[in-house]
């Protein structure tokens, strides 16, 4: 017999709970047995007293219409489209499953059924599950109050309360309370007291399991292993070292500021732009990207070329020759900040743009023809020369701006007035009328002199020497813009105006007279000498700053106080007033003695014995800078 089961609606979850109802093929059933109900004559099933907590009656549809073909509880037996019997459950009731069983978890939860199909038994299994409200849990199919606190999940197991506490908490009398023994211990409560179960090698110290591995000394995922009272690190490849602290990045293999990261058992460098390479060792400047002597630098993570003039461009690749300025196969080369073209013959020009005939080199109507690497001119008669430049007028035979014209095989001059002659050579300046290097120029029908400085006049005849400035028969010559006199001896000066007597060389009123090319002094008595310089006072006879005056044929001294005498030789020190080799000097109108030790006094007359220092008629004598007593005795001292 086939069995067709109803699958729960979408909002019903299919889960496994403690209560499981197995659907089997039922034998023909009797009239009424819905949830232990009693079938009455009116075909109404009423719940027993122990199941009237929801105070409702269940209509017994199973009492009619083929109730003997299926086991419908709280539902009606109907045939499906295939002719199979199935249960149609009452609406608005928590009745689920194949047989419309009543599902109830109490007021503090929701009851759901989940269907599962067994392939082995080819049957459908139903599981009842209570989805309880917060603070409640499933206890024997009823949501019963259950609370372990904010840090735990409460449930019932075999009717007993169970608290599943979060990490760092433990069950203390039915509530999850904070409980921590550290990474090396398991924390719990026993009879309300905290208990730490510590790992081997660690010990409970004030509620924390402490051991050599407690501080997690092993770095980089290394495993800490107890070794007596010490620890040993079992490092993950490729790390090593006592604390697994040494890795492939420890030696800073990434150059130029690259960031080193581990990649399995190898390392990987994350390079800063613009560096690259396994170790960021490749500098973009190492390939010398800057051309033409440019300097490569890294600026703000980018490569930059500092170009030497005249080059420019990202890589200094652009220069004066970059665009091939030289034409006609010319070779371009750098020349300072510009370029120079080496032209292939016969081309020339800055850009080799000119061929031999481009400039029309053939003169006087000559025809130009390129000849190999040069050119050739075919001249018209009477012209000749490489460029047909030579002709009757080539030498410019016509002077003074005369116009030369070819006349057959010869030439003819057309002269401008006032010039005449075959070559226009005759004019107002032909006789060279301008003197002293003046330049003659034609002025209308006459001439005009342009004089060189310092000459003036119509013919430049007047100059610095025209006024005969040199005296005493001196010779005048023009020098620059002025004149120069060559003087006859003994005269001198710019104009030879100075004679030897002009400076009054004769002293003491002597008279100067010329004597041929020199001079002579006639002296007045009592003076003599070449310049009358010698007199009675010439020998400075007056002493002590006395002033000497000539008187008649002799001299007289005017003495300064306190000096006197004929030559002021008598003064305060003349009588040698300073005794005992004292040094006399004049001070004002008096004298002052500088005494030698041990002497003192105005005239150095006092010595150490002057005060009679020797007692008892002792004899005093000067001894160096002091005195010495010769005692008469019995005296001593």
Topology:
Elements: E1 19-22, E2 38-39, E3 44-46, E4 58-59, E5 75-79, E6 85-89, E7 95-96, E8 101-102, E9 109-118, E10 123-132, E11 136-139, E12 142-145, E13 152-157, E14 160-165, E15 169-172, E16 175-178, E17 185-190, E18 193-198, E19 203-204, E20 209-210, E21 223-227, E22 230-234, E23 259-263, E24 266-270, E25 295-299, E26 302-306, E27 331-335, E28 338-342, E29 367-371, E30 374-378, E31 403-407, E32 410-414, E33 439-443, E34 446-450, E35 475-479, E36 482-486, E37 511-515, E38 518-522, E39 547-551, E40 554-558, E41 583-587, E42 590-594, E43 619-623, E44 626-630
Antiparallel strand pairs: 1-10, 2-3, 3-4, 5-6, 7-8, 9-10, 11-12, 13-14, 15-16, 17-18, 19-20, 21-22, 23-24, 25-26, 27-28, 29-30, 31-32, 33-34, 35-36, 37-38, 39-40, 41-42, 43-44
What is the share of helical residues? under 10%
- Helix/strand structural class: mainly beta
Low-confidence stretches: 1-68
Which radius of gyration do the C-alpha atoms yield?
74 Å
Distance between the termini: 171 Å
**Beta-strand fraction estimate:** 25-35%
Could you say which overall geometry the principal axes of the C-alpha atoms support? flat
Q: What is the topology, as strand order, of the major beta sheet?
A: 1-10-9
What's the rounded overall pLDDT mean? Answer: 80
- What count of helical segments does DSSP give? 0
Largest sheet: 3 strands, antiparallel
The number of E-state strands comes to: 44
InterPro entries: EGF, EGF-like_Ca-bd_dom
Main location: membrane
GO biological process, one term: Notch signaling pathway
Disulfide bonds: 235-244, 307-316, 379-388, 451-460, 523-532, 595-604
